[in-house]
What we know:
The structure holds two protein chains of two kinds.
Chain A lengths: L26 H13 L3 E5 L18 E4 L5 H14 L6 E7 H6 L2 H9 L5 E6 L40 H6 L4 E6 L3 H13 L4 E6 L3 H5 L5 H10 L6 E4 L2 E4 L10 H5 L9 H21 L6
Parallel strand pairs in A: 1-2, 1-3, 3-4, 4-6, 5-6
Antiparallel strand pairs in A: 5-7, 7-8
Chain B lengths: L3 E3 L1 H11 L4 E4 L6 H12 L7 E4 L3 H13 L5 E4 L1 H16 L5 E6 L13 H4 L7 E4 L3 H16 L7 E6 L8 E3 L4 H7 L16 E2 L7 H30 L6 E4 L6 E6 L2 H14 L4 E6 L1 E3 L3 H8 L4 E6 L10 H9 L7 E6 L9 H17 L4 E3 L6
Parallel strand pairs in B: 2-3, 4-5, 5-7, 6-7, 11-12, 11-14, 14-15, 15-16
Antiparallel strand pairs in B: 1-8, 6-13, 10-12
Helix pairs in contact in B: 1-2, 1-6, 3-4, 6-8, 7-8, 9-12
Amino acid sequence: MQEFKSLKDIPEQDYFTGGSSACAGCGPSLGLKLALKVLGPDTIIINSAGCMTLLPLYPNTPLKASWIHNAIENAASTAAGARHGLDNMGNEDMNVVVYAGDGATYDIGFASLSAAAAKNERIIYICYNNQSYGNTGFQWSTATPYGSETKTTPRGKENPTGTNIVNKDMLKIMGAHRVYAATASLAYPVDFLNKLSRAKERDGFSYIELLGACTAGWNYDPRLTIKISKLAVRCGMWPLYEIEHGMLNLNKDFSELKPIDEFLKMQGRYRALPPDGVDRLQALINEHWAELKEYNKQRYV
Amino acid sequence: MKQTLVTGNEAAAWGARLVRAKYIPNFPITPQTECIETLARWSADGELPGTYFDRMESEHSVMSAAVGAAAVGSRVFTATSSQGLLLMHEVLYIAAGMRLPIVMATISRGLSAPVTLWSDHNDFLDQRDSGWLMFHAENNQEVLDMVLQAYRIAEDPRVLLPAMVNMDGYVLSFTDEPIIIPSPEQVEEFLPEYDPAHTIAKNRPVTVGPPVLDEYSIFRAQNHVASRNALTVIEEVQDDFEKIFGRRYHLVDEFMLEDAELVLVTQGSMSTTAKAAILEMRDEGIKVGLLRLRIIRPWPNEAVARALKDAKAIAVVDRNVAPGKGGIMFPEIIETLFNLNKRPIVSGFVVGLGGNPQTESKVKEITNKLMDDLAAGRPRMEWNDLEEI
């Protein structure tokens, strides 16, 4: 297994080059750029309809790897077919990697994802989680955190909280499929690449969920993508952990979490979240963090 | 030649086995289930070497996985029916747009609501504009033969389109008929291994299914041209098929049309019943014949027009309905005949929905009504199963 110890170990070779139509500061694009450094050109990226679908635009592509965009809800099934097709054609050493958004993963494509995971297909499934349906202009998905405003959960007199539903605990759900499941952050690329490297060597299904900071939807200055990604980890909004064989491993432990306020203030989506909403969000984060600390190095699912 | 008793479902499974399909994603649905169960049994017994039998969690995922495997060059087979076919609908367009030569047996069953398990053709014809090649078999021998031919046609570089082979649920899918199962050697001669030219492979990165801007229409036009090309390819394949297997197929199936004044246009298994009724009516001196539509897409315009050009009155017998309009194939026949010098009277009959049996007496009844229409010089559009609606 290829192991990365520091930023210096990250390969210089890029398979995601210039000419993409993504926003400046786009988190998910950066995630794919990093991922391809580990995965290399003999990779098929299976994409669900979403922001990333616009990376290739006929007749151009910024990618030096293969790409299949099928529809929105079927990336995992498409990947399973591609995997068996490749194995059958003697291309067992090619990687099949899903790169799908949270709407395509948590919601509409969940049946397809769950089946592929239960069958332990040899696929790396990366969910770039921008906590919304981003490509259509930022609407609510079951990955949207409590308190975030979206176009379909706008704040109003009747509902000052915006999103008043608590997002799914996807890592736990995927961990319960008895696969390798991990979170990752753009602010911790060494951790992300090591997780990918590990997933690449596994003879089965891996699920990696990358927080894909979204400058347009979260409404922040594009320069701050990495800073926001780092804050998300530091304040417990996006803890870095992994689940394998049901065992939990907390990758970045902190004696104390930063309060959520600074993270919220940097983003337009939390603007005007009433104080009781902030308190509730902070309580949800604390509860999750306490759970992770309690079960660290133990059986979690 | 030795004949074996098999159901339509088994005939389709034999097709998949003989073409050495490498990937079979599947999901059960009545009345198709026996087809995939047959393949599951063979797979478990080691009778399908090199084939991956993949149980999916929905028909949508079946077609999605089929796309994934075909995009990397695998020969793919699957089968479905009814609601399952509708669930696939979105991905059918994608498979055709990506020009992936997947072959699927469809086992026709009426659509919900209300629920029916029995056959009509609305599920199949709902896919009419998806870009797939669409073939409809009359009997179990044709089911098997069409699966073999479908791969040759679909994989031809002039075509590269997915293909559906339809059979009527229950009437064929669960009914044993004696058929000739060709030898693997014959099929290998007819259909060599698939040699994909454009698929993803190692050191050959390919982008499949990207967005386009102004070029969209070009791609749709190519899909259309490829489908029209298939008409030529189908005729070549039929010739080759006859040389190797000794059975002859044509773009349309013509039965006693030579001197026919009255012509019934049918599809699927009801054609067999209608042919029997026609033989009896011929004994009574009625000049009636039958045209069976077996290639639905691409539409064999010239073959249909040629077969119908001397008819005085035509009954289009649709086992389907477009509510608010009538039978789905009725306007297709009208349009095909529109530019003939001498236009016949064309009546439309909606029949056999939800498996309502098409008996010989019903066929005779339709023929009698058609005679009345000819005498009156006025066509009709009628729901033949019911006294009145």
